[in-house]
Every structure is written in structure tokens, then in C-alpha cells.
Fold:
Amino acid sequence: ALTAASGRPVDKIMPSFIDQAGEPLVTVKSACVNPPAATSAPTRKGRRSRRAPLKPEPKTQLTVTQQRFWDDPPTTKKEQTWMLPVCVKSGGAKPFCQIVSQQEQILPIAGCLPWIFMNGNAAGYFRTQYDKADLQKLISMAATGLNTQERMALLGDEAALVHAGQENLAVYMDLVAAISQDAERSVVESYRPMLDIIHDYALTAQDANAFHAWIRSTFQPMMAKVGFTPAPNESADAHDLRSALIHILGILGEDPETIRQATTLAEQYLKDPSSVDASIAKNVLEVAARFGNEELFEKYLAASQKATLQETYYNIRSAMAQFRDPKIIQRVLEISVSDEIRNQDAARLMADVMQNKDNEQVAWEWVKAHWPEVEKKITMSSGGTVVLGARKFCSVDASSDVQNFFNEHKVPSAESAVKQATETINSCAKRQPRLQSELAAWLQQHSSANRSAGR
Structure:
């Protein structure tokens, strides 16, 4: 019926997505082709022919291939093809749409395009990997030539390719730098999770200062425009953008001014939650806690015990997992297994502490040492949450430790959670050295460029 109504081969397109697993990866390379000059026909019949060269019409030739996208490719891969609608965008021209049905296909487009984007309006269900030259052109104009949805799609594709080892992390960092002044909340929130991953897994101690400096120099200008105080009649997107920037600058950039402002607002919130904009409450509490001391922790604890609204209670409790003093962390874990915490909330608090990269070792050793107390707080539905608290660990030894511990201490209904946690840990351990090396090289180049520009 859809085929008949649209006049498009929907009946051939949909089975290729429904009847096989996975999502397509489209790889593309463009080339500007200038055909040789042609000759004109004779001007008059019967007279001596006079042929004049015709002006050749240049075109862009896209070489498009498709295969299944794998985050962690298996040793043997089955060839897969889709009936894949793609819409090529370039400049102000209307997207050129075509169905790619072969493993490799040539798409000719009139004119030499300055750049190409394969997923016009981000409507297609596939990932795209561009030739190096095409990608650099795309990055240079992404901020002005792509709409919001297209910028989000490009960020998502590049993050996935970096994760899978099919793209260098440096390219992703270049892309974020190129669109870092895009104040669209949805765009900022598209790259924020990847920046968290980079911070937690790719950043080494020796590169920390350079990374923090890059974060601050990149995002302080946008924060200066947004400010910590909402303007009258400000949109919901502006509120969410401010919240994201507080996290980026405070947690990832360790920006002193953001930490100072967040701590002031957090203490204000602890006294009167209604005095702080609700959209930033969780992030200011987390930033303040990350750099807070025992005195501030006591204020968090007292405020959580007096909280009358669930939102206030959960904002404060989850932020408590961000403190980094081992003594404070042990107190948070002790609270999580006490009668003070409801069973349904205990697992989440333990998992939050374990998933803080600065606390994971202290937290994991505590959980193992106090397992009888932890086990008493686990319900049929929350056991998997505790197990998945370990999924952010990132070493082969940690994977074995988690596997062995939960083989010996069975958690009801958590078999799949154990498998998921260990697979995630092993995957992280496999890619971490590559990410660290790529980030270090990019930061060194970036820092050198900054020094040269400053001279």
C-alpha cells in the first residue's frame, strides 16, 4: 500500500532493513571529473564540415560502498547489502536523492561540488564514513553548511567510527572544535557524552592540563554569552544549554570560575532548592561535590535528610557520588546499605559511586568486602543495577575480577548484566591504549599551534 501510494519501492527497501541484522555503513569518496571536449555536428549538410569544441560539463563522481557497521568487528563477516535511500547535500543546492542497492555504486552528480554530506536532513538510517579529503572539507563548513539535525548526525557517525577504531580521535576533536560555538542545545548535548568518554578513558595524567586548557578556551566564550543567571523569558533550550556547559567546564575543564559559581549555587540550593534554577541544579551539585570537602558533604547529607521533594532528594543523593575523598566515599557507601536508604534507591547510589572513575577502585573493593550488607539491599529488580555499576571499569584484570566475583556471588536475574558488564569492560580495555595515544598526539599538536599563534 505504501509503495502504491508513494510510487517509490518501499516494498523492496523495507525488507532489507527488517529481514537482516545491523545497520549499514556507507563509505564515500568524491572526485571532480572534467570530460574531454566534444565536437559539434556539421553546420550545413553538403558543405565542408566545421567542428567547434563544446564546453565540457564537469561532474562530481561519488564512489559509494556499503557494508554492515560493526562496533567491534567479528573475525568473519557476512557480506550484507541494503536497498538504501541516500540524499546527497552540498552548498545551497537541493539534496540529490538516490537508492544505493549494490555493494559498490557510482553516483554521478552535475557540477563539481565543493563538499558533500550523504545524509541530507539526517533522515537516513545509516552511518557514513568519508574519504579523508572529503571529511576535512565537511568539517570546515559544518558549522554553517549543515542544519542542526545534520550536525548531530555527523557527530554521531564520527563518534561511532572512533569508538570502532575506524576513525582517529583527532578527527572527532577537530569536528568538535569547528562547531564548538554552535549554541544549539541539541548539538552540544550530542558531543557531550563523547567528551565524557574521552575525559574518563582517553585522558592520561600527563595530558590532563592540556585537555583542561582546551576545554576552557573552547567553551568559555559560549558560557560567557549564556551566563549563570537565566534571562527573563528564556527558552527551555537555553536553560539546558547552560546546564550542559556547567558540566563541560566544571567536570571536564576544571574551570575555577565555574567551580566557584557552582559551589555558591549548590550551597544556596541546599538551603532553599527553589532559589536555584531547576535545570542546572543537578549539575551545580555534582561540580561542587567533585571539588568539595567533608564540610560540604555534611551539608549535602543534612539537606538530603530534610528534603521534602523527591526531585531535591535525588539531585542531592546522586551528586554525593561525585565527592572524591576516599573517606567520604566510604561513608556514602555505608549510607547506601543503611536503613536510611530505601532498597529501591540503594543499588542506584552504589552504582553511581562505582561509575565515578576517580572512585571505582575504592568503591569496588568496599562492595566486595561488604557483600553480605550489599546483598541484603538488593531486590529482584535492582541486582543488575549493582552489577552494571562495574561496567565503566577498563582493564582485563577488572573484567576477570568482576566475572569471578559474580560467579561466586550470584545475583538474582543478573546473568545478562554480568555478561554485559564484562563485555563492556573488555571492549574498553581493548580500545583505551589507542584512544590515549591519539588524544595525546592531538593535544600536543593543538598546544603547539596555540603557542605558535601566541608568539
